[in-house]
Amino acid sequence: MKNPTLRRVLVVTTVVGATLGGGIAVAAWTSSGSGTAGAKAGTAAAPTTGAVDTSAITTGLLYPGIDGNALIRITNPNPYPVKVTDIAANGTATVSGNSGTCAGNTVTWNVKQPNTVLAAGATSTITVTGAVTMATTAPDGCQGAAYSLPVTVTVVSQ
Q1: CA 34 to chain centroid
Q2: Domain total for the chain?
Q3: Residue from 86, 94, 69, 106 nearest 150 by CA
Q4: What does pTM read for this prediction?
Q5: pLDDT per residue as tens digits for the range 44-53
Q6: What residue numbers bound the domain in which 123 lies?
Q7: Local structure of 50: helix, strand or coil
Q8: Is the residue at 3 inside a domain?
């Protein structure tokens, strides 16, 4: 291009066009507002225990005045992990398989805080060591008995 005026016009037009184009890009519409965000807390579901009932089953051998272990199957129905903080008696034991007369109150539950963690939706069978004690006055009819103890399980979210 030999004409300097034409060249200047093209350069100026290009610069002005680029500037206006950039201005349009910067001039995009923006908006903001305020309001309230909503959320709703879920409700904790109670853990379930036992296969069908809410019981702990004695394991090992019990003798008058001696502590024994208990097995308890706990299910966490929640969508988050929980920690078992307490297992407490919730009534009198039922007795089966005994050789004679034997009352459920011949065994007592010892307060236990196992601090077992259960994953979300998990089921676990835990052994609670030393959880039951047979009374020193248990009659001979309690020999060979199996005890099922109703319990309440307390959990906290993790």
Answers
A1: 36
A2: 1
A3: 94
A4: 0.65
A5: 777 776 543 4
A6: 48-157
A7: coil
A8: no
